[in-house]
Model the fold of this input.
Amino acid sequence: MKIGVFDSGLGGLVITKAFVEKMPEYDYFYYGDSKHLPYGEKTSGHILAYTLDAMRYMIKNDCKIIIIACNTATSIALRYIQQRFLPAEALDIKVLGVVIPTVEVAIENKAQKVGVIATTATVRSHIYQTELHKLKANLQVTEVAAPKLVPAIEGNDFFKAKTACKELSENFKDCDSLILGCTHYPLVKAFFREELPEVKVVSQDELMAEKLKNYLYRHPEIEKYLSKNKNYKFEVSKLNRHAQIVAAQLFAEAKIEERQG
Ligand code: DGL
Done:
């Protein structure tokens, strides 16, 4: 069985790349719901429905463990999936998100004043503030939504993305840490690091692979089901040229296919 990685778009590819670099032996199935992108500007009801559909599709495609490499879907749908969907439909499958591992790293970094930049839906959920405060109650948290950033990245408009990053950085000048709370943002992390040289930028492509490796080590009852043929499969709900180019850049022989059925 495979490790599944789900996102609405390119962010999941970046996280898959990090997994493959650290643990190349496993079989992976990346699925991006590009048809419904951006999730970050959708209602909670839509985000939940799209994420549930993706979970069913990935389970049908033999995923034993699925990483929801999308902060928006994690914020809105993960709890429902773990508490309701899996017990009812797929008891032997594990689904994990990206928010808790990210918050843990920010706390390990001894953050005091944390900035969070994320999609509108993630900020609306206040999941980062809630989870950060569970670990450290007196932390100062500033959450800012960046509705323009994902469309610019998906549209391959890095000039627009850079301008947006520069404007957004103004909110975090007095923070000691900045969580990039969207898996698309690793693609523009250099812009934030350039604007905020004194701030520790927490980027999920740099932390998720270690967290997953550790999880699999601690859960041999799941790991033993994972096949190790270095088979990497990439699918999206709607094929687009830019995703094909990014996939080819990240994975030498990657072929992204459109979902059938
Ligand atoms: N990459 C997703 C996230 O981590 C969001 C992209 C979108 O808005 O669809 O939140």
